Amino acid sequence: MAAHPPLVLRDAPLAAVAADLRRGHTDPAAYVETLQGRAATVDAEIHAFRSESGGTDRWARARERANELTKANSRPATRPPLYGIPVGVKDIFHVDGFETRAGSDLPPDVLSGPQATAVSRLVDAGAIVLGKTVTAEFAYFDPGATRNPHDTGHTPGGSSSGSAAAVAAGLCPLALGTQTIGSVIRPAAYCGVVGVKPSYGRVPTDGVIPAAPSVDTVGYFTQDVAGAKVAAGVLYDDWRALPTPPERPTLGVPEGPYLEQADEPGRQAFAAQVDRLSAAGYDVERVSILDDIAALNERHTDLVAGEMALAHETWFSEYADRYASSTRDLVERGRKTTVRAVARARRSRHELRDALENRMDDRAVDVWLAPAAPGPAPSGIDDTGDPVMNLPWTHAGLPAVSLPAGKTDEGLPLGVQCVARFGADEDLLSWAEGLAAALPAAP
């Protein structure tokens, strides 16, 4: 099936749309109607959003909320930062008035809970919850029906598939996701958008169905870095607006077994991206690191399996037959994972963070640069792709951002992953603007 080039990138840049809505240049209800027309054209093919429960009319509900916001915020100067912005919410977040299904066949009443703080922050900032976006079952590997807007014969990635695809297709300017291995950075790369995975713990995870609480991180998608900074100011704990942009960063390329996990086209594309940044004046340090990546991958899987088994103990005991085989296998592996192995994996997070940051100190590196995925999006929608390029950074809890970085000859997006020190999210997003401008144009 052919893609829809007019309906992908650059149709809904968050910062510009938010500014127009706040200033009154765009009416919130009219903007909802614009998105409704776009959805009528593309969402039947990409399936980014879950159907509303109880026959609710998504668009009538969103227009009603838009009109309420207009009445309550008559003065442009006092309108909140996300005034009238429709957002997609990955269907593992609890949202008042919405069922939580988590891409599963479990009864929604057993999965219900209080609204997530991240959602409340968006709503309090004036956002309109447009709907729940499709997720792989319990944010693991069993995919939903979502397709890649750039080529519907390819996966959008997982597990935040619907959120990435919705933003890429211009169905909403902002969408929430989560990352436990690579579920924000990878789909952002596959769909050609910006994906932000904050430092572990900087965005609250309460109200989100857990996978592995020791590494679960709330992230999000926008079409550009300027929009990512707007969203950060709402979502993060203690976000600090930087008075002046930080100096241009020195980039570190982690050479060795980690980088060799990318496929050959992915490595070639990454080499070209690094060359492009070097030609733009960035200093690049090539650093031998992550030599034990195979053992690290195993420790992270032990951690995810062990904590997933604990988080799902009650549900799995009653509904094991309703779990998809890949999720069931993970939970059953977790039940067999020893307490010692889980404890070792938890210690490993801080050991890895220290090792990465010590190497940054040694080589005066500010930002690690790596492929956001092994290569472009695989064909078909039964495989969400491999998160192996994201795993070590998630394990260490470091902030990461995926930036669009060109495309293949077939028109599939490519992304590059930028990773900073723990807690340096403000610096990372400031640096990301310059990095994005120096990278190849997005498709």
Global morphology: globular
Overall helicity: 40-55%
Largest sheet: 10 strands, mixed
The overall pLDDT, averaged over residues, is 95
Q: How many β-strands, per DSSP?
A: 10
Strand content: 5-15%
Rg value: 20 Å
Looking at the overall shape, the CATH architecture of the domain at 5-249 is Alpha-Beta Complex
Strand order of the largest sheet: 2-1-3-5-4-9-10-8-6-7
Topology order in helix (H) and strand (E) letters = HHHEHHEHEHEEHEHEHHHHEHEEH
Structure class: alpha/beta
Distance between the termini: 18 Å
Low-pLDDT runs of 5+ residues are 1-10
What would the CATH topology of the domain at 5-249 be?
A: Amidase signature (AS) enzymes
Going by CATH, the homologous superfamily of the domain at 5-249 would be: Amidase signature (AS) domain
How many distinct helices?
15
CATH C-level of the domain at 5-249: Alpha Beta
List the main descriptive attributes of the protein structure presented here.
443 residues; alpha/beta; Amidase signature (AS) enzymes; 10-stranded mixed sheet; 15 helices; 10 strands; globular; disordered N terminus
Structure description:
The protein is an alpha/beta fold and 443 residues long. Among the domains are: 5-249, Amidase signature (AS) domain (Amidase signature (AS) enzymes); 293-346, no CATH class. It has 15 helices and ten strands. It has helices at 14-23, 28-46, 58-72, 108-111, 117-124, 161-168, 185-191, 225-235, 264-279, 293-311, 313-319, 325-336, 339-363, 391-396, 425-438, and strands at residues 86-90, 128-133, 174-179, 194-197, 217-222, 251-255, 284-288, 367-371, 400-407, 413-419. The protein has a ten-stranded mixed sheet with strand order 2-1-3-5-4-9-10-8-6-7, with helices on both faces. Strand 9 and strand 10 (413-419) form a beta hairpin. The radius of gyration is 20 Å and the shape is globular. Residues 1-10 have low confidence and may be disordered.
